[in-house]
Amino acid sequence: MKRANYIFLLLIAGLAAALAVAVSVGSESVSVFSPDEQGRAILLDIRIPRVLLGACVGASLALAGASLQALLRNPLAEPYLLGVSNGAALGTLLAFVLLGDVAGARPVMAFAGAAIATIAVYQMARSKAGMNVERLVLSGVIVTTFLSSVIVLLTSLLDAARLRGYTFWLLGDLSQATYNGFYLTLAAAVAGTILLTSQARALNLMMIGERDAFDHGVEIGRVRIIVFGMASVLVGTSVAASGSVGYVGLIVPHIVRLVVGSDNRLVVPMSAFAGAIFVVLADTVARTAIAPRELPVGAITALIGAPLFIFLLRRS
Amino acid sequence: MLEARNISVRYGPCDVLREVSLSLSAGRMVALLGPNGAGKTTLLKALNGTLPVAEGSVVLDGRPLAELSRREAARRVAVVAQENETKFPVTVLDFVLSGRFAHGGAFGWERAEDIAVAERAVADCDLQNYATRLMNQLSGGERQRVVLARALATEAKILLLDEPTANLDLAHQAMIFRLVRGRCDAEGFAAVVITHDLNLAAEFADELIFLHRGGLFAAGSAEEVLSEANIAEVFGVRVLLDRSPASGSVLVTNVY
Amino acid sequence: MRIPHDRVTVFRPRVPIKSDLRNSRMPSVFRVKARQATQGDIERPVFLVRDICAERKSRAFFDLGCSNWDLGLNEMRSRFFTISVLTALIVLLGSMLVACGRQVAELPAVEMRVVKDDLGREVRLPVKVTRAVSLAPSITEMVFAAGAGDRLVGVTSYCDFPAAAKNVQKVGDTQSPNIEAIIAVRPEVILVSTASQLEAFASALEGQSAAVVVLDIRGLGDVADRLRRLGQIFGSGERAELAAIDFENRVAAVERRQKPERPVRVLLQISEADLFTIGRDSFITELIDRAGGRSVTADIPGGYPKLSKETALVLDPEVIILSDSPDNLKPNDALKNSAAVRSGRVYRVNADILSRPGPRLAEALEQLATLFRKEPTGN
Predict the structure, then answer these.
(1) Considering chain B, what is the average pLDDT of its residues?
(2) What is the DSSP string of A205-271?
(3) Element spanning B123, H or E
(4) Would residue A2 count as lying in a domain?
(5) pLDDT averaged over consecutive 10-residue blocks of chain C (379 residues)?
(6) pLDDT > 70: what percent of chain A?
(7) Is residue A130 domain-resident?
C-alpha cells in the first residue's frame, strides 16, 4: 500500500513534468512565462490543446488496454487486436463521408463503430460452452482485417483528394487537436478511470479465469458489458480525435505491471497516468524531431513500443 | 444447507446428469466417486450454479440457488476447481485475497480483517513461506493448495472440491483431507469432494456417492457403498476389501 | 510470370543474375543476361520483382494520381517481407529460366532504333511508333502537346486533360496500372514518369515486347526539352518544336514582366487540416520563385512536408495559395491571423496545373505571377 502511494505520487509528478516539458518545447521557441502576442497564440491555440489532448488519448488507450487484457486473460490483448480501433476508424470515416462536419458526428460514429466491432467479435467468439480466449483473439484478428479492407476499399472508391488527409490520420496524429476534442476525451478518460477501477477487483478474478470469477460472486456478464462498453467509449473518442495511436494500450499496462504487479486496482488507474505521460512525450518527439516538419505520433509510439514489446515478451 | 433435488443437466441434446439428488448438511463431508466422464464435475458445477439445471432444482439454505445473486451464493459456497493457470504475475497472497471479493465493496481495498482471514487460510494450507511468491512460479501441487486457501478465505461454509489432491504428495493429500474434515467437525462446514482415491474417501467422508453414466449409482456410508460388486460395476476393476489396520475403515486393494 | 520466348532465345548454362543497382535507381530490378537471336548479346531487364505495395501506400493518398506530391513515409515498412519473397522468387524464376531455355523463335521484322531515356538506359524502339501508353497524367498532357495524342492507346484513369484524353482506353491508375490491360492494347512504347516511380511495372512490361521509356520531368526547365524528345520518339518533331517554343516564350514573358520590388512571401497549402505544403525539393518552390514570390517553406527538407502549425503561424505568409481540392477550401486555422488572411490575399489555384509537371506549368506560372502582383483587397 505504502509503495503504491509513492508510485501514484511519482506518476502524478511525472505527468506534470511531461506536460510542462511538452508545453515549453515545440517547432517554434516561445517564452512560456512572458509570451508575446504570437507566442500566446501558439501556446493557447495550438500547443496546449494538443498536449492536453495527447494526455487524454494516452490515458484512454492505456485504460482500454489494461482492462481488456484482464477481461480477456491475455496480456497481449489490445484495442487493435480486437478490432475496436478499426471499428472506430471506420465509424469516423463514415461520419466524415456521410455527415461531413456535423458537430459531434465523428466521436459518436467512432463509438458506434468501436461498439459494433466489439459486439461482432464477442458474438463470433461466443460458443455454447462459454467464451474461449483463443477464439476471441482469432475473431478479433478476423474483424480487424475485415474492417481494414473495408477502410481500404472506401478510401480507394471515394474521391482520393477528399480522403488523403485521412491516411495520415489513420497512423495516429494529434495535429488537429481542438479544445472540444480535449474536453470530450477528458470526460471519457475520467469516467473510464473511475468506472474501470470500480471493476478492478472483479477483473482481478476474471484475469485468473472466468470460472474462478463466477465462483467468487462476480457477475461476469455485467463486468463484460461495462468493460467492453467503456473500452469502446474510450477508443471511440480517442480515435475520433487523433486516429489510431498504436501500442499505447499494449505497452503501458505491461510496464505498470512490471512495477506494481498485477492488481488491477493499481494497474488500471496507474495505466491511465502512465499512458498520458507516454503519449505526451511521444508527441513531443513527433512535433520536434524533424521540426518544422511533423511526424504522426503513432509512428513514434510504434517506434518505441514495438522493440520494447519484443524485449518484454522475451523477458517473460 | 445445500440440496440438489432430482437435477438433470444437458449439454445440447445429451443428458450429462440424470435426476441426481444430493443433500448436504452442516458437518458432513460427502465424497463423489466415479470413473472419468461419470458427471462428477458437472454435478459440482450445477451445485454452485455454474451450469444451469435443465430439470429439478438446487436449494441453498432454503432458497433456490437461481434466485440468489452471485455475490450471495459466493459467500456461502466456495469452489476449488481443477487448476487454472494465469499468464499474469499474481502473488500467492494476492491470489488468496481475491477470495474475499464477495465481502468487499466496489472500490474496496482489503480491510485488516480480510487480510487476517487470508493469512490464516495461507497458514492452514501450509503456505506461509510462499506468500510473496508468484503463482506462475509454483509447482502444480503448490498451486492447488493456494486455490484451496483461496476457497477457505471466502469463509463460505460449503466447500465444493474438484479433485483437490490430484497433484499432491502423500503428506499434503492427507493434510487437505484432514483440514476439510476438521472444518466440518469443528466449524460446521459441509463439503463435497471429488476424488479418485477410494481409501481417502472411506477414511474421511461421512457419505460416499457413486456416480455412473450421469446417474446416481449408490450412496451411503463406506461400508454400504464400497462393495466388490459396486466397484466392479462402476469402475470395471476387481478389488479386494479389507479393513485399515490403522483406523479400521474400509480399505480397497486393486487386484491387477 | 511468363517469360517471352520471342525475346529470349538462348540462355547460357550459367545464368548470371545480379541486381543492378547503379544503372537503374530501382533497388530491386534484376537483370538476366540473355542473347537475342539477331542482335547479338544485349543485357536487358527481363523480369522484376519489387515491393509495389510499400511504394503505393506511401504515395497513394498524396499523389492525386497525377502529381509529384511525394511524401516518402512508410518506405521501409514491408521491406523485410519483400526481401524474403524476393529471394524465393529469384530461386523460382531462375529454375524456370533454365527449364524453358533453348527455344528458338523469330523476332518480328520491325525496323528498330535506340533511344536514351531519363534513366540513361538505352531503349530500343520501332522507328515508327504508332501505339503508346502513358502512365502519368502529366505525360499524357505532354504527349498531346507534342502532337502525338492520337498515338495514345492507353492512359491512366486520372488522365483528364486535354479533353481527348478522356476517350482513350484506361489502363488503371498511376499507382496501380493494370498490366493485363496494358498488354491488351498492344503498345510499342510505354511512357512512365520517375515521379510516380513506375520502373517496377516498367520492367515487367518490357518483357512483353513493349519498350518502356522513363520520362522524368523535374520542373519548369525540363518541359521544353522533353516536348522535343517526345517529338523525336513519335516523329512529330514539328508540332513538338512549336509547343516547346510556345512554352519557352510564355515562361520568358512572365519573367520579363515587372517583378514586385521584393519577392512576396508565399505559403502553398496542399491540404487544410493536415497542413501539407511544399518543401525544398518540390518543383513548385522553383515555380513560385520564377513567378516573383518566395515560398516561406523553401528551406524545409523534402518535397511535400507536413508543416507544424506553430511554424506556419510564425512564418506569417503574405500570400496563401490553396491548391484547389475539396479538403483544401480555406487556410488552416493556425494562419487565421497571418498577413495573407488579414489582407485577403488567399487564392485558389487549380491543383492539376500546379502539380502536374507538364505543359500547363506555363499557365500555372502566369497565374501565380498575376496573383503575386495583385494588390491586397482587405484592410
Answers:
(1) 89
(2) HHHH-HHHHHHTT--HHHHHHHHHHHHHHHHHHHHHHH----SHHHHHHHHHHHHH-S-HHHHHHHH
(3) helix B112-124
(4) no
(5) 39 36 35 35 34 34 30 34 49 51 49 84 87 92 95 92 92 80 89 66 68 88 94 92 95 86 92 90 94 94 91 94 89 93 94 92 94 74
(6) 94
(7) yes
**Which residue in A27, A176, A291 is closest to C273 by CB distance?**
A176
Closest-CA residue of chain A to C62: A164
Q: Is residue A3 part of a domain?
A: no
- Give A30's contacts in chain C (Cβ within 8 Å): 310
pLDDT digits (tens, 9 = 90+) for B70-120: 889 999 999 998 766 777 888 999 899 989 998 876 566 888 888 899 999
Asked if residue C61 lies in contact with residue A166, where contact means CB atoms within 8 angstroms, the answer is yes
Does residue C196 sit in the same domain as residue C134? yes
- Tell me the one-letter amino acid at C227: L
Q: Which among C242, C273, C307 is the end of a domain?
A: C242
- Between positions 105 and 134 of A, the ones with CB within 8 A of B are 128-129
In a domain, C4, yes or no: no
Rounded distance, CA B28 to CA A99, Å? Answer: 68
Residue A209 has a pLDDT of 85
- CB proximity list for B149: less than 8 A, separation 6 or greater: B96, B99, B118, B121, B122, B124, B125, B127
Q: Give the tens place of pLDDT for each residue, A81-102.
A: 778 999 999 998 888 888 777 7
Chains that touch B (3 or more CB pairs under 8 A): A
CA proximity to B98, closest of A213, A81, C174? A213
> Domain with A111 in it: what CATH number?
1.10.3470.10
Q: What 3-state class would DSSP assign to B10? A: strand
**Does C229 share its domain with C352?**
no
In this predicted model, what pLDDT tens digit does every residue of B134-163 receive, in sequence order? 988 888 888 888 999 999 999 999 999 999
Which of C62, C274, C311 is facing A28, going by the closest CB pair?
C311
State the Cα–Cα distance between residues A243 and C250, nearest whole angstrom: 45
CB–CB contact B109 A1 (8 Å): yes
Nearest to B108 among A201, A218, A263 (CB): A201
Pair B17, B8: CB distance under 8 Å: yes
Determine which of A43, A175, A178 to mutate to test the interface with C (most C C-beta atoms within 10 Å): A175
Check CB contact under 8 Å for C300 and A45. no
Which chain A positions have a beta carbon within 8 Å of B78's beta carbon? 215
Task: Report pLDDT for C96.
Answer: 52
Of the partner residues C64, C302, C334, the one whose CB lies closest to the CB of residue A46:
C334
> Alpha-carbon distance C303 to C278, whole Å?
6
Per-residue confidence (pLDDT) for residue C56, from 0 to 100: 36
Maximum average pLDDT range among A50-59, A142-151, B4-13: A50-59
Whether residue C351 sits in one domain with residue C228: no
Nearest to A211 among B50, B69, B73 (CB): B50
* Domain B2-254 indexed as CATH 3.40.50.300: yes
Let me know: does A177 contact A251? Beta carbons within 8 Å.
Answer: no
Count of structural domains, chain A: 1
Distance from CA of B131 to the nearest CA of A (A): 14
pLDDT of residue C202: 63
User: Quick check: is C5 in a domain?
Assistant: no
Establish if C12 belongs to a structural domain. no
Interface of A with C (CB under 8 A): 26-28, 30, 38, 41-42, 45-47, 155, 159-169, 173, 175-176, 287, 290-294, 299
In chain C, the residue whose alpha carbon lies closest to the alpha carbon of A165 is C274
**Domain assignment present for C11:** no
User: Contact C326/A166, CB-based, under 8 Å?
Assistant: no
Q: Is A8 contained in some domain?
A: no
Q: For residue B52, is pLDDT > 80? A: yes
β-pairing verdict for C319-324 and C264-271? parallel
CA distance C73 to chain A (A): 9
Structural domain range at position C210: 17-242
Is residue C275 within 8 Å of residue C310, measured between CB atoms?
no
Residues C327 and C220 in one domain: no
Per-domain residue ranges of chain B: 2-254
Q: For chains A and B, what is the number of CB pairs under 8 angstroms?
A: 87
Taking residues A206-221, what's their average pLDDT?
89
Residue B123 has pLDDT above 80, yes or no: yes
Tell me how many domains chain C contains: 2
Neighbours of C, requiring at least 3 CB pairs below 8 Å, are: A
Quote the domain boundaries for residue A230: 16-315
